[in-house]
Structure formats: structure tokens, C-alpha cells
Amino acid sequence: MKLGMCAGVGCPQDTSEIFGENTKGEKEELFPSFYRRFEVFASKIGTWSSRMSVRRATHAGSWYTSSVQDLNDQLDGWLAAAKPTLSPARAIIAPHAGYAYCGACGAHAYRQVDPRNIKRVFILGPSHHVRLNGCAVTATHTYNTPLYDLIVDTGINQELLQTGEFEVMDIQTDEDEHSIEMHLPYVAKVMESKKDQFTVIPVLVGGLSVDQEANYGRLFSKYLADPHNLFVISSDFCHWGQRFRCLLRQIPRGDLPVYRSIR
């Protein structure tokens, strides 16, 4: 029985290092209680390690379908209805509500993505569940989607952390947040021809001052300048209605876009 989590830190790699060369039956006979507790502990270590390295698709089955076939059909249909008027885009802004509300809308942004030259996808999403004075990166190595798993670029994460301007999300914060996850199926879909040949860099964005916005802009600018990078900006555009105190200031004319009527 191996204990991979202990590698390199002085922990035993095999129970034989503790119990000698006895067979499993002899070990259990010699130390029945300890051996059972050791086996349980090792099992929990393995489960914990796996859990911390993978972010589950926690909103699949509620905010969007968890069915691979249905999700593929939805995304294909929405993308087919959109036009590549600004392709190839280097950065897009798309919504992060449930797909029933914004799936079709998001397709107009993702239709502008040409995967052929893309090696990395930065996904910047606002924090909804924790107060964050800055930005944070994931601690995981893999992001699950119903379509296929996305590989986190741990090298870029380390570069960002070395600036001293980024925190690391704990797994609970990571899995609670929807602003990044709602883009993952779309990223997987438009990049499916490059499956396993690109990485993602999820970034959780907190409440920033004007000075912080300028500072993070400078930090991200070198990555934006790289033509192999795509930036996805996750946004609501606005929360509409009385509940959010966002109401029309005037009734829009037929020739006046809604967004202008709320300025």
C-alpha cells in the first residue's frame, strides 16, 4: 500500500517500512487495531488528495444540464445561430447566469473564438460568496466539465502568485463560485479541437479600487499581448429590476437600445 501524499517529506512509502517484511496477515495479527486504523487513515489521505486537486462541476444539473448529449446539443445549437462577425477575438465578455437565461446570449461571444492559435484561456470572474480585496487563483490542477476535463496552467498560476498580488482560493470557495464555472462548458466546446492541448487560468476577482484595477491591468497586460492567450471576462452586464435597484430612467423608443435608456 503506497502513500503518495507523503512522498519526499520523510513519511513511509509502504507499510512494510513500519511493519517489516511480514505478510499482511501477520501484520494484522501482530497489530490488529493499529493496522486497521492505519489503513483507514491512508484511504482518507488518498481521497483528500484527489478532492483537493480537482474542482468538480458543482453547478451541473442545476444551472446547466449535466447530460453530455444535451449540453453538446444546446451549445451546438446556440453557436450555430450566432455569427462570427468579429472573429478571431483575443478577449470576450460573456454572461454567467444559468444557461436557461443566457446560454444563447453567450454564444455570440464564444462564436468569435478561433481555437487554432490558442494555448491558454484566462477566465476572470467576480467573487459572489467571499469578500476578496484583490484577485485569487485556484489551488486545483483540473477543472471538471460534463464534456471533458480542463487542465489548469499551474505554471502561470505560480507566476501570478510570485507578484504578491494574488491569493489562493480554498476548494470550498472555488466550488461555490459560479461566475467562472458557467464559462467552462463553452470553453470546452469551442476548444474541443484542441482538447488536452490548451490550459485554463481561472482568476477570481474581488472588489477592486481604481488603483488596483490599474495595477492588475498592468500585470495581465503581458499575457494579453501574447497572441496565444484568450481572455474571457465573466459578467452579468447588469442585474435588472426593482430587487437590484436597476430600473429604466425613461421608456426606450423603438430606435433606442435598452442599454442607452439606463445610462
Keywords:
three-stranded mixed sheet, globular, 9 strands, 263 residues, alpha/beta
Structure write-up:
There is one protein chain. This protein has helices at residues 16-19, 24-30, 32-53, 68-81, 99-110, 154-161, 171-176, 184-190, 210-224, 258-261, and strands at residues 54-55, 91-95, 120-126, 135-137, 142-143, 150-151, 166-168, 199-205, 229-235. By secondary structure, it is an alpha/beta fold. The strands form two sheets. The protein has a six-stranded mixed β-sheet with strand order 2-9-3-8-4-7, sandwiched between helices. A three-stranded mixed β-sheet has the order 1-5-6. The longest helix is centred in the first third of the chain and has 22 residues, at 32-53. The relative contact order is 0.15.
Helix content: 25-40%
- Structure summary, number of beta strands: 9
Count the helices. How many?
Answer: 10
Q: How far is it from the N-terminal to the C-terminal residue, by CA?
A: 65 Å
Spatial ordering of strands, largest sheet: 2-9-3-8-4-7
The sequence of SSEs as H and E is HHHEHEHEEEEHEHHEHEH
Q: Which overall shape is indicated by the principal axes computed on the Cα atoms?
A: globular
Backbone CA Rg: 23 Å
Which secondary-structure class do the elements indicate?
alpha/beta
| Overall pLDDT score | 82
Stretches with pLDDT under 50, minimum 5 residues: 1-13, 15-20, 44-48
Largest sheet: 6 strands, mixed
Q: Strand content of the residues, in percent?
A: 5-15%
